[in-house]
Structure formats: C-alpha cells, structure tokens
C-alpha cells in the first residue's frame, strides 16, 4: 500500500513538472523574437491590467473555436494600434530615462501603458 502511494506521488510530481510546450507560431513585430513565453505572457498581462481589458481586445477568436484566440492573426485593427502604443512607450523610455544599456529597451517600465490609460481601454481625456 505504501509503495502504491509513493508511486502515485512520484507520478503526480512528474506530471506537474512537465512544462507546457513553447508557443510555435508568433507574430511579434515589436517585442524581441527571442522573448520567452513566460516574459511574453507577463508583459501581455500587464497590458490587460493597465487597460482593463482581456486578450480579445486585440486578438480575434480562432476559427472553429469559441474559447481560443488566434494570437498570430492581424485581423483585429486594435492589435496594430497596440503595436503603435508599444513602440511609443519603448521610444519614450529609451530616449528620456537612464537605463542600463545591457537591458533591452522593450523591457523598460518607467513610463507604462498605465501611465496614461489608468485602467481604461482608452486614455481618459483630462
């Protein structure tokens, strides 16, 4: 009985240790092509929070699926608008704030989406 419990525990730990497969298809035009899945997900989550939106604000639903998104597709015009905003923020940080030149400017966060958006999809007009 102890052996079965131990074996079950080992199997469950083995399954938990398996990482999800890396994303195969990407359509990165602003962020580095070699960005890790974890870093990409983390950045995207900060955008969601800063704008108070979900992923489907910029990404279209995958064909034939109701719960999946097609992250590669450029059919949603808001996706290109988001890229423009990303370029702008990267440029502001790179040109106006001191940073370690070994760091990638894409990862700077002195000025962020939240600076202007404050949790809203479109920046409030003051």
Describe this structure in words.
With 126 residues, the protein is mainly α. It has one domain. It is 44% helix and 3% strand. The chain is built from 4 helices and 2 strands, in the order ααββαα. A two-stranded antiparallel ribbon has the order 1-2. The radius of gyration is 19 Å and the shape is globular.
Topology overview:
Blueprint: H1 2-17, H2 37-51, E1 60-61, E2 69-70, H3 77-96, H4 113-117
Antiparallel strand pairs: 1-2
Q: Quickly count the helices.
A: 4
Helix content: 40-55%
Radius of gyration over all CA atoms, rounded: 19 Å
Number of strands: 2
Summarize the entry for a quick read.
With 126 residues, the chain is mainly alpha-helical. Helix content is 44%, strand content 3%.
Key descriptive features of the protein:
126 residues, mainly alpha, two-stranded antiparallel ribbon, 4 helices, 44% helix, globular
